[in-house]
Amino acid sequence: MGAAVTRQAQGWLLVVLGATLLSVSAFSAMYANYVRPGFRPVLIATGAVLVALGLLAAFRSRPGHAPRVAWLLAAPVFAIVLVAPPALGSYAARRQQAPPPPATAYSGAPAADLTLGEFIGRAQGGSLAGRRVRLTGFVVTTEGGWHLARMRINCCAADALALEVTVHGAPAPPEDSWVRVTGTWMPGKDDPSGAYVPPAISATEVVPVEPPAEPYEEPA
To answer: Can you spell out the DSSP letters for 149-180?
Structure first.
């Protein structure tokens, strides 16, 4: 009898896991802290399947020994419900040693609002001279100033790369706070050591903003 109860408990654990997955994907935007928005349908379908399998296991369980390793299913539930890891921020951006891959130069009509990827691409192409732009990202403080940053993901948070723009002309807001920076591109100089130097913006306005529902930039 005890073994049957154990299998029922593990079935209900599957239900809880599936329901948790549905809660962060179907009923909120929390999933965007971990994966690209395009994965939402897959997460919803996976959550529904887990709920269905859990209910089947809970109501049709038979006496027998259930593997103890199955209790590891509780780990992601506790991680999401109790810890709720936030989107990657300044700590992850600061640990990146290599420059991001070359950005595709933005070739559309001049626009005030650019993503960081577009800004970096246009800076590399030299098409930003004299143009006022607005960029949105989170703050990464450095010894000599601060950067505006945003993480770019190809699949999920595990493969994230930091896109950074150095901000001049304004004091650093609090670390990890989200801001909108208005200003103009500043032509930079190469580092004598060959190290990557992020493009820079001369800020005329820095305004705090709420973190976006989708914190990561997707590849162009």
So the answer is: EEEE-SSBGGG-EEEEEEEESS----TT-EEE
